[in-house]
Amino acid sequence: MAEHDVNSLDNKQTILKNGNKQWVKLNVGGTYFLTTKTTLTRDPNSFLYRLVQEDADLISDKDDTGAYLIDRDPTYFSPVLNYLRHGKLVINKGLAEEGILEEAEFYNIAELIKLVKERIYHRDIQPNKDGKTHVYRVLQCHEDELTQMVSTMSDGWKFEQLVNIGSQYNYGAEEHAEFLCVVSREYGVPEGLEVEHSDRGKVLQQKGSRM
Fold it and tell me: Which segments cross the bilayer (predicted)?
């Protein structure tokens, strides 16, 4: 398994073994994160708060190292965890705001959801240097639908990023994975240049606007 965000993990293992419950180890999609209980409980309405409080109504499992198992994308968990640490939204290059929004909504962190939505809004209304604006949409699909959806995109819609959002905590069960597909389209086409609109493009836009 990959090790991420666990500097001095070996040194802190001693603390964990000695029963200091302040440190919490998470296994997110196969990647380990080490943080504190204080960080994870900053939002009392969040999934992570309930997780470390061992809420009886929340089904949670641990791996053989004692880490809480969370079946989500670890790449998009980093911005969520960093927000809980310092209260700022920091998005690494190559990550889509829509992917972070999906994770913020999953973990039910209200202030982070608000920040990401504001970031998306300002991004979408900001024109490029050539006067054109990019509009982004997020489509959710099953694994067996992915190839067809991407191959049939048209009308200027362009594939940007794919985010694996996992399953519904059915460990060991064989299910089709679910994905978020981030697509974009450029608006502000110069006058005189006509763009044909196919049904597929309209469907993409309608689906995205409902998410």
Answer: none
Joined together, the tokens standing for residue 147 give: 């190839």
CATH number given to 133-168+176-187: 3.30.70.2000
Domains in the chain: boundaries: 23-125, 133-168+176-187
> What is the predicted pLDDT for the residue at 192?
40
Q: Which stretches of the chain are DSSP H helices?
A: 9-17, 37-40, 47-52, 74-86, 97-107, 110-125, 143-151, 199-209
DSSP for 1-14 reads -EE-S-TTHHHHHH
Minimal CA–CA distance to 78: which of 65, 89, 67, 64? 89
Q: What is the SS3 assignment for 39?
A: helix
Residue carrying structure tokens 């927000």: 83
Residues 6+ apart with CB under 8 A from 56: none
What is the CATH topology of the domain spanning 23-125?
Answer: Potassium Channel Kv1.1; Chain A (3.30.710)
| Mean pLDDT, each 10-residue run in order, the chain (211 residues) | 50 46 91 96 94 79 93 95 94 92 96 94 72 73 76 75 66 64 70 40 44 41
